[in-house]
């Protein structure tokens, strides 16, 4: 599955029409091709869609209005000038949402949330004061004989009544400012009532036209995972989904799981030799990765799925999978195999060093022991890496200290952020995986714009928890150009260099 959020084009019109008919069950009509063409002509960046495998299945349409010249309490036809969009004002101060719909077959993917997020980013980039929209209350017709619209809305807020549209808008930080009567003609489900919704841009600056369009703050979610036995694969999925959902609810862009976090699933094979048990686990990897890809799409978060044993041509690798929220999949196999991994599992080392492009910048992946080899991180830094993710598994504190100290050094010398996540607890029924030691953390370079000790945040040692941390990509750019020291620029390449041989 490939998911893409992009600007709408007129070539998408047939898909838009079909999705509209399905979303509204052909009760509210469709946009004409002329109306879509007009919107694309006057405000192309405000017309957004989501395509799944090349088919547009969700759409958001909007215009900009001047709040001093437009009566926000007007009905829908007045706001859109009966499809002429005469109230659109490029110099206005409010983004007015005139349409959002998702094909019902794709609603489980939470595509509406992506559209709302893009709208919020557009509002901030254009330095607009707020997003305003008239919101339908499509379940109201079931309660109209026994309560007023105001009572209905209050009960939806208190979750005594469920209205999918209003509940979704409230969960996306919109506030109900007023109840609108006779808002949308022929909306019998809402009895022609609507809510006047508003989301405020806290970054709004009067008299300033626009802000930078580049995403600056990236939110990381690190899972300090407790090793526990599972009754089966579904129990494991439930635990993974719990953390993904939790981190997604906090608006995280990435979630990082530890190295070999799925090894509790080896317990049924504990009677086998370690290498044979690991091969049995590796045969589950494709299925597990596919499920985690679904979580990445559904919860709109990029997932670094720790690492898992991976069979390629009957050779065993320790592989980390980057499941993009777009549906794309990348992978990295551990390059430096520890003596333990070779002795017990006959693992092979990977042969590829590269950064990955994500919707939040360029990231690198290294697995545990890899971070103790500074040449690899330097190559990634030369390729533009901004955040390095390091899933690890260490059984003792001295092993953890090696990983932590080297990870912190990599952040300083490569002018990047480094996030490390490991496992805690005990796993007595899985050979060679019995004890764990971890303190997950996010490390930064060491300069005035960063914490004095180079530690952005760190988890409680040896306790299962989630660590949420924001990192500012602009600070890396400033450090590179204006830092007290400039480790990347000041290298003596006339004297030495680090090169990638293949």
UniProtKB/TrEMBL annotation:
Molecular function in Gene Ontology: acyltransferase activity, transferring groups other than amino-acyl groups
Record-linked InterPro entries: Acyl_CoA_acyltransferase, C-N_Hydrolase, C-N_Hydrolase_sf, GNAT_dom, UPF0012_CS
Any matching Pfam family: Acetyltransf_1
The organism's place on the tree of life at top rank: Bacteria
Stretches assigned to the CN hydrolase domain: 218-473
Ranges where the N-acetyltransferase domain occurs: 3-162
Family membership noted in the UniProt record: Belongs to the carbon-nitrogen hydrolase superfamily. NIT1/NIT2 family.
Record protein name field: GNAT family N-acetyltransferase
Species in which this protein is naturally found: Faecalibacter macacae
């Amino acid at each position: 599955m490939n998911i893409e959020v992009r600007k709408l084009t007129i070539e998408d019109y047939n898909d838009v029409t079909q999705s509209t008919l399905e979303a509204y069950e052909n009760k509210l009509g469709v946009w004409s091709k002329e109306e879509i063409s007009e919107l694309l002509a006057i405000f192309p960046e405000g017309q957004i869609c989501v395509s799944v495998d090349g088919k547009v299945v969700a759409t958001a349409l909007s215009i900009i209005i001047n709040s001093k010249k437009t009566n926000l309490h007007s009905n829908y036809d007045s706001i859109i000038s009966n499809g002429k969009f005469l109230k659109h004002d490029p110099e206005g101060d409010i983004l007015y949402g005139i349409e959002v719909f998702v094909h019902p077959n794709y609603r489980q993917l939470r595509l509406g949330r992506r559209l709302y997020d893009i709208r919020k980013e557009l509002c901030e980039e254009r330095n607009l004061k707020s997003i305003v929209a008239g919101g339908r209350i499509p379940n109201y017709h079931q309660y109209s004989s026994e309560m007023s619209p105001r009572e209905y809305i209050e009960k939806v807020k208190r979750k005594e009544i469920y209205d999918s549209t209003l509940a979704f808008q409230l969960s996306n930080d919109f506030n109900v400012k007023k109840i609108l009567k006779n808002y949308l003609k022929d909306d019998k489900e809402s009895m022609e009532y609507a809510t006047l919704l508003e989301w405020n841009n806290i970054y709004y600056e009067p008299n300033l036209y626009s802000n930078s369009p580049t995403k600056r703050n990236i939110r990381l979610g690190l899972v300090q995972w407790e090793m526990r036995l599972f009754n089966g694969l579904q129990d494991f999925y439930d635990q993974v989904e719990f953390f993904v959902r939790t981190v997604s609810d906090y608006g995280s862009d990435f979630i990082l799981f530890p190295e070999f976090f799925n090894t509790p699933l080896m317990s049924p094979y504990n009677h086998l030799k370690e290498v044979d048990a690991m091969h049995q686990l590796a045969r589950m990897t494709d299925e597990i990765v596919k499920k985690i890809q679904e979580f990445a799409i559904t919860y709109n978060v990029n997932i670094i799925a720790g690492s898992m044993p991976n069979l390629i041509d009957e050779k065993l690798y320790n592989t980390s999978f980057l499941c993009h929220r777009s549906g794309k999949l990348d992978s990295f196999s551990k390059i430096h195999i520890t003596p333990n991994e070779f002795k017990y599992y006959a693992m092979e080392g990977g042969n590829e060093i590269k950064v990955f492009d994500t919707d939040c910048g360029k990231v690198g992946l290294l697995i545990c022991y890899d971070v103790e080899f500074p040449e690899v991180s330097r190559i990634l830094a030369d390729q533009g890496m901004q955040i390095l993710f390091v899933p690890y598994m260490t059984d003792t504190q001295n092993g953890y200290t090696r990983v932590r100290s080297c990870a912190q050094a990599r952040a300083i010398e490569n002018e990047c952020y480094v996030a490390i996540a490991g496992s805690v607890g005990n796993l007595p029924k899985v050979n060679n995986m019995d004890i764990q030691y971890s303190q997950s953390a996010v490390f930064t370079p060491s300069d005035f714009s960063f914490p004095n000790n180079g530690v952005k945040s760190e988890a409680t040692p040896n306790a299962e928890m989630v660590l949420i941390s924001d990192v500012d990509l602009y600070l890396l750019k400033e450090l590179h150009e204006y830092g007290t020291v400039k480790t990347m620029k000041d290298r003596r390449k006339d004297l030495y260099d680090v090169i990638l041989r293949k």
